[in-house]
Design goal:
Blueprint (H helix, E strand, L loop, with lengths): L3 H14 L18 H11 L13 H15 L14 H12 L5 E6 L3 H9 L3 E6 L15 H6 E4 L14 H13 L2
Parallel strand pairs: 1-2, 1-3
């Protein structure tokens, strides 16, 4: 069976052959030259020994910038304990259930899906409900197949497009349906 990145590369080659311009970010690394000023900034940063540490707490300047942004943009005053930076999306996904869920809540999760999607629900002590993503439905959820009682108890639904591992893309009308579903069930 072909791996996901080989499949993505095959799709890229097909698009290129059809005359499309493609920016390949499938493996997290661009396949186009990095701008010279970016290269220089990286080289300078690499010379600073302080740049080689992971931070275990938020940098005060970042927290202040977030507070200022929310106040300026939305007129919302945040306290420092309401702000947390994530060192990557997996970290946020893995912990979101702790912030949003109470015991007995339901989390709607895609099948197939990344294992980290489940972690957030587990950590939030929620019940997991898997909705199927099938090829015959373009790997989009069928909201009408989610039982009413489950939908009412759901705290959140995990969706992620473009969707790995099946490379599905959701059209704009999908998001309208998703928002309608979310509003209906609060």
């Amino acid at each position: 069976k072909t791996g996901i990145f080989a499949s993505l590369n095959e799709k890229k080659e097909q698009l290129l052959a059809s005359g499309r311009k493609v920016y390949n970010l499938s493996v997290g690394t661009p396949d186009f030259p990095v701008a010279e000023h970016v290269q220089k900034a990286l080289i300078e940063a690499a010379k600073d020994p302080e740049k080689f540490h992971y931070t275990l707490r938020d940098i005060p300047e970042l927290t202040a910038a977030v507070k200022d942004y929310y106040q300026r943009r939305f007129g919302v005053t945040l306290s420092e304990d309401e702000i947390v930076a994530m060192p990557g999306s997996q970290e946020g996904v893995a912990h979101i259930g702790m912030a949003l869920c109470n015991p007995g809540d339901v989390v709607l999760l895609p099948n197939p899906g990344y294992p980290v999607f489940e972690v957030g629900a587990y950590l939030g002590d929620a019940e997991l409900y898997f909705y199927d993503l099938k090829e015959e439905n373009d790997f989009l959820p069928r909201f009408d197949e989610i039982p009413e009682d489950i939908a009412r108890r759901a705290k959140y639904i995990m969706v992620s497009y473009p969707y790995n591992p099946v490379c599905a893309i959701a059209p704009p009308e999908f998001y309208e349906e998703l928002i309608s579903f979310a509003k209906k069930y609060n």
